[in-house]
Amino acid sequence: MDDTFFTLEQDPDGVARLQLCRPERLNTMTPAFFPALRDAVARLDAEGRTRALVIASSGKHFSAGMALDVFAGGLPLLNTTDARRRLAFQDGLRQLMRCFDVLEQARFPVIAAIQGGCIGGALDLAAACDLRVCTTDAFFTVQEIHIGMAADLGVLQRLPKIVPPGVAREMAYTGDRLGAERALATGLVNAVLPDATALNAHALALARNIAAKSPLAVAGSKLALNYAIDHPTADALQQMTLLQSAIFDIDEMAGAIKAWQGKQAAQFEPLQPTPPL
């Protein structure tokens, strides 16, 4: 793992914590950040032991998004001067998008713990997570509109499914900051905490609560919820019949019921590792 951008820790209880660790650079992203994040999350998913992931940060801000010098650096990816280069641009951009897709596709829930600014590409990242919690000083902005471009790593596609479409459009067109109070009111975040210490404690408690449940049931719930976002109810219900037939485990349920009735913590086997290709 490239620890230039983040550190990664795993607890025995199945909770993993990925912490952005470039506070002196406002945890900005460079092209190398994306595959590093993708590979780290994909590895956690493939191993099967992680039951919830918290993405947090260090320093004053969660992340200022893509480093501006990336756009001025003459990267081949950004060259759109002819048709062949534009086609290559499309392929390169989709590869970057997939680096955030893994958060949505992972078998475990991902929680973003956001302090300070969640700016530009950082909001694309946060929007791909299952849950978001933040500090009172947090703010969210579609920064790309300020530098003459449309946001292109998923926030315009995911944000209108999280907050009211009018709020998403306002953020996309103006680049105005959405503060913590309005973020809570519009459903962008699930909770607002007074400071970074309380934020991290809350995010970890939420992750441990999830990790204590059947990872099979949680993974199935995530698959169903993700599918339902983009499909009519009838199609989603049909998908649920197939999904439930695949994940229904009466022995797992019996253990969960017994533990719940006895007010004890249930014990669940981790998910199977993904077979290597």
Task: State the helix count.
Answer: 11
Q: Would you state the CATH class of the largest domain? A: Alpha Beta
At the fourth level of CATH, the homologous superfamily of the largest domain is 2-enoyl-CoA Hydratase, Chain A, domain 1
N/C terminus separation: 20 Å
Biggest sheet details: 6 strands, mixed
Tally of strands:
9
Number of domains: 2
Shape-level CATH architecture of the largest domain: Alpha-Beta Complex
H and E order? EEHEHHEEHEEHHEHEHHHH
Strand content: 5-15%
Q: Output the radius of gyration.
A: 19 Å
CATH-assigned fold name of the largest domain: 2-enoyl-CoA Hydratase, Chain A, domain 1
Question: Strand order within the widest sheet?
Answer: 1-2-3-4-6-9
Q: Give average pLDDT, whole number.
A: 95
| Class derived from helix and strand content | alpha/beta
Poorly predicted parts: none
Please give the share of residues in helix. 40-55%
Q: Which geometry do the CA atoms define?
A: globular
